[in-house]
Write a structure and sequence with these properties.
Low-confidence stretches: 1-7
Helix content: 10-25%
Radius of gyration: 18 Å
Structural class: alpha+beta
Order of helices and strands: EEEHEEEHEEEHEE
């Protein structure tokens, strides 16, 4: 007989514990830093499943201008091992705030031309609010905390490494009631 789980209103069979209550698991929480082009379709496929009523995504692309100057390309560098460890800490925090079935963080390193994708974030959940809010939290946390650095190269031959953004992560309120 279906009954609500103790921490959510999902109607679940007796003894069933939904996966969104489990800890971070690389089988469901996907991390990739790569010099290869990124695919939004691939990211969505990694979190797509029958229990997901929502998949929310963020795709960050290289824009063609910055402060009135023409951007030629971006160059990214990352400390992969540290980024992976911190990403899973961030996902754990997201899982404590939102009912998540799976997450994706794919980020490019090396040269990324104007119009190409630099980062993809995806989150799957049973309901849209959790997926949408989680993606916002995940991209803000990535920008504030991951050791991934960006250099903007401009058409005048100049270039500058950009600082990670100062972001107030306390604005992200949980949808979970625990």
């Amino acid at each position: 007989m279906a009954q609500p789980h103790s921490c959510c209103t999902h109607q679940l069979p007796e003894g069933y514990v939904p996966r969104h209550h489990k800890i971070v698991d690389p089988a469901y929480d996907h991390f990739l830093i790569s010099p290869e082009p990124l695919s939004l379709d691939r990211a969505c496929a990694l979190v797509r499943e029958d229990d997901a009523g929502a998949i929310s995504t963020f795709e960050g692309t290289t824009r063609g201008t910055f402060n009135g100057a023409r951007v030629i390309r971006l160059e990214y560098e990352a400390y992969d091992a540290m980024a992976r460890k911190e990403w899973y800490t961030i996902v754990s925090e997201a899982r404590s705030k939102y009912h998540l079935l799976g997450t994706v963080m794919h980020h490019r390193v090396g040269e990324v031309a104007v119009g190409q994708t630099s980062v993809i974030i995806a989150a799957a959940s049973a309901h849209r609010a959790d997926a949408i809010n989680a993606v916002h939290f995940l991209i803000d946390s990535l920008k504030a905390r991951l050791p991934i650095w960006k250099k903007e190269l401009l058409d005048d031959g100049s270039g500058a490494w950009k600082q990670n953004e100062a972001i107030d992560l306390s604005v992200h309120q949980p949808t979970l009631d625990h």
